[in-house]
Amino acid sequence: MIHILLFGLACAGFAMLCLARDRHQRDLLGRKLPAAAPKALRAAGWACLALAFVLAGRGLGWAYGTVEWLGQMSAGALVTVLFLTRLSARTSSSRRAPP
């Protein structure tokens, strides 16, 4: 169960960190967020990643938990990048389609 929780926190953290960038805001939302939103998203993203580290360390032991956290962070980053790439490609292709 903790593995699913760590993976979910990793995906959420990386998604928030990506959404804090102007480019991803334009691609995914079609507009730029207000000035305070990227700072809040960045803080929340880092908080998710830090919470995952603490949960992994407390739940699995600090030695194995650190390795598990790194693995879940890698998987979460990969899934987030693939999802954003797929969504950006679909959004940009729909914008280029003739009416």
Keywords:
99 residues, mainly alpha, single chain
Describe the 3D structure.
The protein is mostly helical and 99 residues long. Helices cover 87% and strands 0% of the residues. The chain is built from 4 helices and no strands. The protein has helices at 2-19, 22-29, 36-60, 62-96. It is elongated, with a radius of gyration of 16 Å.
- The unreliable regions are none
Q: Specify the biggest β-sheet.
A: none
How is the quaternary structure best described? Answer: single chain
User: Which class best fits the helix and strand makeup?
Assistant: mainly alpha
Helix and strand succession?
HHHH
Number of helices: 4
How large a portion of the residues is in β-strands, by DSSP E? under 5%
Residue share in helices? over 70%
**Beginning-to-end CA distance, first to last residue:** 47 Å
What do the pLDDT scores average to? Answer: 89
* Approximate shape: elongated
Number of strands: 0
| Radius of gyration over all CA atoms, rounded | 16 Å
